[in-house]
Design goal:
With 209 residues, the protein is an alpha/beta fold. It has 7 helices and 10 strands. The strands form 2 sheets. It has an 8-stranded parallel beta sheet with strand order 7-6-5-4-3-2-1-8. Strands 9-10 form a two-stranded antiparallel sheet. It starts with a strand and ends with a helix.
Length: 209
């Protein structure tokens, strides 16, 4: 089974097109105003119009309220990635759209929280836990100890995120067995500024996993 990749936090036609051309299986759009990757509903509508049917579109949220979620779903996104969202809320959202539940990881106990999302999510996304008080739940280039995922039974299909880049993604895949990886800051030249060359290099490395 080949390893696939989601390029997250896209905001321009050029970088979206690069992600698709170089083989991304999913593209992600951030709906979280404090993030430098935050996009408007109009931006996302225009970007989704460029996405071919074989590439999945994912909206990224931090415990969204109903107003934000409904407006974002109207853009045409096919799935939602939920950070800091309870299993109960995730299950309610899943009645409307497929759900990726993000688990912030620093310890083995954090990884164990994934089991609570059985039946409430379609996929788990293991991401690095950000420092206490951080404004963002991810996209900070942090990684966690990948050994925490080794030989671990998984309750759901899952993806690996957190501090990945072209230089370490093969090591990450080899150590965890991830079949889907998710990158944001690792393909940027500055916070929120995606780099076409870095996207190409990352996806080339993923293809070699």
């Amino acid at each position: 089974m080949p390893v696939t990749a989601k390029i997250c936090g896209l905001s321009t036609p050029e970088t979206l097109d690069a992600a698709i051309a170089d083989g991304a299986s999913h593209v992600g759009f951030v709906f979280f105003p404090p993030s430098p990757r935050n996009v408007s509903f109009d931006q996302v509508r225009a970007l989704i119009a460029r996405v071919p049917p074989h590439v999945g579109t994912v909206g990224v949220f931090v415990d969204p309220d109903e107003t934000l979620l409904s407006a974002a779903l109207a853009t045409g996104i096919q799935a939602v990635q939920l950070h800091k969202t309870t299993p109960e809320r995730a299950a309610a959202i899943r009645m409307r759209v497929p759900v990726w539940a993000a688990i912030a990881v620093k310890t083995r106990a954090d990884v164990g929280q994934a089991a609570a999302y059985s039946g409430a999510a379609d996929r788990i996304l293991y991401d690095a836990k950000t420092p206490e008080g951080a404004a963002l739940p991810g996209g900070m280039g942090l990684r966690f100890d990948w050994k925490l995922l080794e030989n671990l039974p998984q309750p759901l299909p899952w993806a690996l995120s957190g501090g990945l880049d072209a230089g370490n993604v093969r090591e990450a895949v080899g150590g965890t067995g991830a079949r889907l990886v998710d990158v944001s800051s690792g393909v940027e030249s500055a916070p929120g500024v995606k780099d076409v060359a870095k996207i190409a290099a990352f996806l080339k490395a993923v293809a070699q996993c």
